[in-house]
Amino acid sequence: MALIPAALTGARHPLDPDPVRSTKAAAVLALGIVAALTGFFLGGLVPATLALLLARQARAEQLAAAGFLTGGRALRIGVALAWVGIVLAATALVIASIIGLLHYAGSRNGGDFGPNVN
């Protein structure tokens, strides 16, 4: 049994603004996609960082809008993709470091020193 009649649940005040989608949330989603696609090439760090900074602003605006600013799902997905881009970039950096160290260790002129002349 509901305390509010069914006819009043969908009623809005005439001066209430229409809910609109957050453009910052859409930008976070787009930057998150770019970060996830280019993350393994270390180029994903820039859009991922921008997405995370912009997500903080978008989340604050959504809280201040009290429900009249939508796009929370796009914001969450964009943040998750930005973190995926950062993890991919870190993975690429670790793999490149390991390959570089193995290449350096296997080369002939890597760690040997010439004869000492006194």
Quick synopsis:
With 118 residues, this protein is mainly alpha-helical. It has helices at 6-9, 23-38, 45-65, 72-106, and strands at 20-21, 69-70.
For the structure shown, list the relevant keywords.
118 residues, mainly alpha, two-stranded parallel sheet, 4 helices, 64% helix
Note down, in words, how this protein is organized.
- There is one protein chain.
- By secondary structure, this protein is mainly alpha-helical.
- The chain has one domain (20-105).
- The protein has 4 helices and 2 strands.
- A two-stranded parallel sheet has the order 1-2.
- The longest helix has 35 residues, at 72-106.
- It is rod-shaped.
Order of helices and strands: HEHHEH
Question: What's the story with the biggest beta sheet?
Answer: 2 strands, parallel
Q: Given the helix and strand composition, which structural class is it?
A: mainly alpha
Helix count from the secondary structure assignment: 4
- Roughly what percent helix? 55-70%
Strand content: under 5%
The value of Rg in angstroms is: 26 Å
Topology summary:
Layout: H1 6-9, E1 20-21, H2 23-38, H3 45-65, E2 69-70, H4 72-106
Parallel strand pairs: 1-2
